[in-house]
Amino acid sequence: MTTQPLLQPVRLGALELPNSVVMAPMTRARAQNAELAPTDLMATYYAQRAGAGLIVTEGTWVSADAIGFVNVPGIYTDAQVSGWAKVTGAVHEAGGRIMSQFGHVGAASHPSHLGGRLPAGPSAVNPGEKSFTPTGPKDTLTPRAYTAAEIADTIADYRRAAQNARRAGFDGVELHAQGSHLIPQFLNPRLNRRTDAYGGSGEKRARFLLDILEAVSDVWGGDRVSVKLSPGWTSGTAFTADEETLADYDSLLKKLNDSELAYLHLLGTPVAAKRNAVFSRYRAHYQGNIVANLGFSQEAGNDILQAGIVDAVSFGAPFIANPDLVERFTQGHPPAEGNRDTYYAGHTEGYTDYPAFAAN
Ligand SMILES: Cc1cc2nc3c(=O)[nH]c(=O)nc-3n(C[C@H](O)[C@H](O)[C@H](O)COP(=O)(O)O)c2cc1C
User: Fold this and answer.
1) CATH number for the domain harbouring residue 311
2) Is position 353 within any domain?
3) How many domains does the chain fold into?
4) Distance between CA atoms of 60 and 230, rounded to whole angstroms?
5) Ligand 1 touching residue 25 (CB < 6 A)
6) Centre of ligand 1 from the C-alpha of residue 329, in Å
7) What is the CB neighbour count within 10 angstroms for residue 241?
8) What digits encode the pLDDT tens for the residues 56-91?
9) Which residue out of 6, 21, 23, 26 has the highest number of ligand 1 atoms within 8 Å of its CB and is therefore the one to mutate?
10) Which of 292, 355, 289 is nearest to 327 (CA)?
């Protein structure tokens, strides 16, 4: 079993991983304090999972304007930076490596997260999503369109978050550009109807991401920066992949070769039979490191690495109930099932109380 590709070391930019198993970013909504600061409980949770080759944190707000979900931590205040320093310290102490994932939900937020203000997005088009508010899920509204000054301010927020992530002792940063977040809203021709430098063609719709990438890479060096993208995403009324949007992503992947990133984190497809073909399409356009994600089992992860299509594989849900996932892969122990009721809410239960494998 020791020859499993998942257990082999891999270099991703400036990051040396002892194995090829990445813990995918997962919002767990445990920052239950007014400051939205990471807690000691969160430090325990991440340190328990330090056997991963690399941990990517939950999506973390780059500013108060970025918020769109309850009890999710930020990285824009000193209290938040201090909380994150405890998390990175605990993970490093346990022998791990950890990236901060930067999130911003843009138009997918709700006034109840923003002191009553209307969310802003690339254009005044409702993404038709749900926002998880303190009083339950609410439908999104038609947002305001970002002004040019707000775009510049938002890029500056990402730069400041990158500086904060350095102060907090992270090993690098990943941009959350997947799902229905702000960056993919800019990439989406249905939501981005702008006619300035940030909309009007696939290339211009990508500029927001590329400008943020430049700001963050200025702080970190590209070889400690990553982007998570989901070209096939389907959600709300605006996110459906078609030939036009997939072709836009092909071009974006080509363009991202220039950024010399640590890795691109890419969602494939839930359809197992098509998985390797989807990643082969990405590989045809992107020559840097690819971390593959979505629905991988140990076997499928070993298979795609063996085929040489990608460089590492990330696991999300499997890390919830298996803090020792890499050890289970090593020993051939079966994975435990997590309780979905505590994925996004609760305290220690379903968070830090999953044990390592023990033979009965
Ligand atoms: C509870 C939960 C929270 C998630 N939160 C985030 C997040 O904050 N940022 C992100 O990029 N993806 C998030 N995801 C998606 C995962 O990173 C990953 O893409 C997805 O779970 C598919 O991988 P898996 O099949 O191995 O679970 C989340 C997934 C789960 C299950």
Assistant:
1) 3.20.20.70
2) no
3) 1
4) 18
5) yes
6) 20
7) 15
8) 999 999 999 999 999 999 999 999 999 999 999 999
9) 26
10) 355
